[in-house]
Amino acid sequence: MHAELIDGVAVSKKIRDEVAARCAALAARGVVPGLTVVLVGDDAASAVYVRNKEKQSVEAGMKGETIRLPASTSQEELLAVVDRLNADPAVHGILVQMPLPKQIDPQTVIRRLAPHKDVDGFHPVNVGKVLIGEKDGFAPCTPAGVQMLLQEYGVDTGGKHVVIIGRSNIVGKPMASLLIQPGKGGDATVTICHSRTPDLSWHTKRADIVIAAVGRPGTVTGDMLKPGAVVIDVGINRIADPTTKSGARLVGDVDFESARLTASKITPVPGGVGQMTIALLLRNTVRAAEQSIPAATVAG
Ligand code: NAD
Description:
Blueprint: E1 4-5, H1 8-27, E2 34-40, H2 44-59, E3 63-69, H3 75-87, E4 93-96, H4 106-112, H5 124-132, H6 141-152, E5 161-165, H7 172-179, E6 189-193, H8 200-204, E7 209-212, E8 230-233, E9 237-240, E10 248-251, H9 256-262, E11 265-266, H10 274-291, H11 295-299
Parallel strand pairs: 1-11, 2-3, 2-4, 5-6, 5-7, 7-8, 8-11
Antiparallel strand pairs: 9-10
Helix pairs in contact: 1-10, 2-10, 6-7, 6-10
């Protein structure tokens, strides 16, 4: 069997088109969705992500802005920037790019964000809303992107056994929150595996859907899968490859070549989940802008 490829490039384009249409509808009512990304320090990977976020938000018709602060920025200075953005009605979504320099506690910063502008979905209010199924909360973009890929490819999660590998607050845990909700895209039976799980393959072999978010290449191989399983690879790992121009290439957490022989559907890396994260960020931002309009105005 050769698995069908789940094309994150195509699905993310569809979402960005939908977001652009919603931005145009808001613009007609005089509202331009504003997304502000705050980047502290000069981490090279973060700088690339932030540039892409700004570029794609502008392309969708938003006011995309990046505030760049030096690595020496104190926590108080960063919190003052967050306070200013919280109070600015032209800013609908705020994202503080992680990781932050050592002198700043990320949880303190996340808690300072106004929950209705926390389009990354990491504020405890949004974490809680997603867990209890309140639709006006913001789900973190990567797990929301995975859920959307499954839906777009007709993978019904209802009654299926999903094994998530990884228990981080940004991927593993919110992924479980989304998949256990009643209704479309949910209704799954979820197992979360992590670094202390003995015999990972005992679990993965019983999974209809495997979602890997570990950060270690080759964590899932074809012999660990049930035939016909759907495999979602969230991992992004840079490995040395002297055959490429840059001397490195990106791989996921799944051994793609062996897994594709057993799986029925699989995401490639790159070109799978990674493409979805920014698209879902834009979607959260346009919804934040829509939710900022008083109900009477929307009805009118
Ligand atoms: P993390 O380091 O916070 O968490 C990794 C998780 O893997 C931990 O919960 C740990 O318990 C688990 N783990 C480690 N070794 C394991 C093992 N041997 N068996 C089972 N579980 C094990 O990482 P994260 O932030 O959740 O990211 C995971 C991966 O996803 C990384 O490669 C990251 O780059 C990638 N990622 C991609 C996107 C995207 O946009 N596609 C977004 C976020 C993260």
